[in-house]
Amino acid sequence: MIRLFIIVFLFISGGYSYAQEVTETNDVIQSESTVTSEGLMKTTIVSPPPSAISPQISASGSDLCTVGISGAVQTQILGISGGKTVRDMNCERLKAAKLMYDLGMKVAAVSVMCGDERVKIAMANSGTYCPIDGKIGDEAKLAWQMKSVQDQISDEQKNLVERMFDEKGETKIGLGVIISTLFFLLLL
Question: Considering 8, 72, 176, 187, which has the largest number of Cβ atoms within 10 A of its Cβ?
C-alpha cells in the first residue's frame, strides 16, 4: 500500500513540476545581402625537386666478405645513382685461416694469417716466426733471416738507371729536365 501511495505522489508532483504555459511569439528576422566579386585566379603548382636515390646494397646477415658502397648525385636536370660491392680481403683471410684451423691444419692457418704484414711483425716480435717453405720454429727463423739478406743483396744489385728512378722524386725531375733540354737542342 505504501508503494502505491509513493507512485501516485510522484506521478502527481512530476506533472506539476514539468508543466509550462505555452505563449505564442512571432520573431521574424529578415536580412538581405549582395556579394559581388571580380578577380583573376592564378594557381601555381610547386612540385618537389627530382631526386636520385642510391640503391641499397646490403650484404649483412650473410656469410660474405663484401661491403656495399652506393651513392647518388642530383641536379635540376639529371640524376645519377650507382652502387657496387667491394671484397674485404682481410675478412676472407680470417675465414680461410679459421676454416684451416678447424680442419686441423694449424700451421697452414698461421701461414695464411702471416699474409698480413702486421701479423708477421707481431709473430717475429713474440719470437715465433711465420712458417716459410714448410719450415717452422728455429728453421723458419733462419729461413726468414736468409730471405731478408737475399732481399738486401738484390736491392744492392739493381742497375744504375733503376736506382735513379727508385730514389727521390727530385732525381726524376732533374733527369727529366736534362733529357728535355737535350731533346730541345737536338731540334735546333
Answer: 72
